[in-house]
Amino acid sequence: MEFVPVSLLAASVLDPIVGALHELLTWLAQHLGNYGWSLIALAAIVKIVFWPLNSMQFKSMLKMQALQPKVKALQARYKNDREKLNEETMKLYKESGTNPLAGCAPLLLQMPILFSLYWAVIADKALFSKQTWLWIGTAFSMNSPLHVLAANLAQPDYVLLAVYIVSMYVSIRFTSPAMDEQQAKQQRMMALISPVMIGYLGFQYKWPSALILYWLSFNVFSIAQQLFLINRYHRNPAPIGPHPELAAEALAVSDGQAKNPALPENAGVAVGANGASGSRRRRRRRSKR
């Protein structure tokens, strides 16, 4: 199978990756007997290769979430001093061994593969127009009403697109741990908005079923990985970083403002500090006894 560059961007930047994906898909198809199964196998291979980075991303996310109460306490304490807030926040990240950018690395490294696969399919539609998978390419799919099913892997399959949309919702809604209600609310909104956007783009641009099959497979493997990581690391998250009193301050701020909306933010911080020192005094008295 000869690779044909489809754009200046692909030829100059992604061409080597696109060509490598062509070769890998061809090799997998020769052993699996079908390009549909080779796309699923490719998604599994990519997931396995990036497993360590994705695990690092998940652990970094948990650390960032665990630090949020302390970050909020710093924001309340230094709300009028932006420079001091930035300094103390970076100090908190450094002392706790947390890198705010660590979670972006796996995504950025996988993006070239995502775009390259798109070009790999688009560049050789003639090949994928001869490929079938399960119901795709059967007599039933060729005679489906309104052409909702694909006759080959180069055509759009709207049933497959619908399954992919559902997988997007499940992935965002149920496999992304949230530490507070605000974060959970944002995730619920994203779980609705993202699948709607995916559905619109897939229908508007008539994505080939080969692309949808790969993305769906990758999403399913991602969900399985997230559930594994949640079960392993998120059931009993350990306290992260120094300054435990900051967490008490953040809790006091939220509790104080909830009970008395007119209470200023710095009053909550003071209450938190007094509460923390009071807790220390009680511990000293218990130890003397």
Distance between termini?
A: 82 Å
Poorly predicted runs are 1-11, 236-251, 257-289
Q: State the helix count.
A: 12
Please give the radius of gyration in angstroms: 25 Å
Largest sheet: none
What structural class is derived from the secondary structure elements?
Answer: mainly alpha
- The ordered string of helix (H) and strand (E) elements is HHHHHHHHHHHH
From the spread of the alpha carbons, the general shape counts as elongated
The helical percent reads over 70%
What is the total number of structural domains? 2
Any key phrases for this structure?
289 residues; mainly alpha; 2 domains; 12 helices; 0% strand; elongated; disordered N terminus; disordered C terminus
Topology diagram in text:
Blueprint: H1 8-32, H2 35-49, H3 51-77, H4 82-96, H5 105-123, H6 125-128, H7 139-142, H8 158-174, H9 181-205, H10 209-234, H11 244-259, H12 265-288
Helix pairs in contact: 1-2, 1-5, 2-10, 3-4, 3-10, 3-11, 8-9, 8-10, 11-12
Short description:
By secondary structure, the chain is mostly helical. It has helices at residues 8-32, 35-49, 51-77, 82-96, 105-123, 125-128, 139-142, 158-174, 181-205, 209-234, 244-259, 265-288.
